[in-house]
Amino acid sequence: MKKTIALLAFLFxxxxxxxxxxxxxxxxxxxxxxxxxxxxxxxxxxxxxxxxHFTAIKGDAAKVHLAADKLVxxxxxxxxxxxxxxxxxxxxxxxxxxxxxxGGKGVITFTxxxxxxxxxxxxxxxxxxxxxxxVTRKKDGK
Length: 142
Prior knowledge:
single chain; Lipocalin; 8-stranded antiparallel beta barrel; 2 helices; 8 strands; 15% helix; globular
């Protein structure tokens, strides 16, 4: 099933690219909700239900701002904020951030296909997958 979904997402992205439709900030702006699942060796990591608020950055069409919340005891709690760079041809968003606890860095990459967005957070210098993220645009979130 996962392979079928991945194949369909790839074909959808290929179709968008073939049609010349580039990803823009307008395609991303809005609220997205879903799951952020722990991977890798970090024992203090916890799976999370997330709510992402994407907004345009005035004067910079190549980026969007993300305010990321997680659900804790029934209430949304801000985890952090990031500016992500848009690669319109690849339909991806990407950001890097320092991890003070380890001295390393994290890299989050999202791939957008319609109202679904899948992401991966890689941890460096370990080169380890830290999280897999699967979110869907909220129907009233744009």
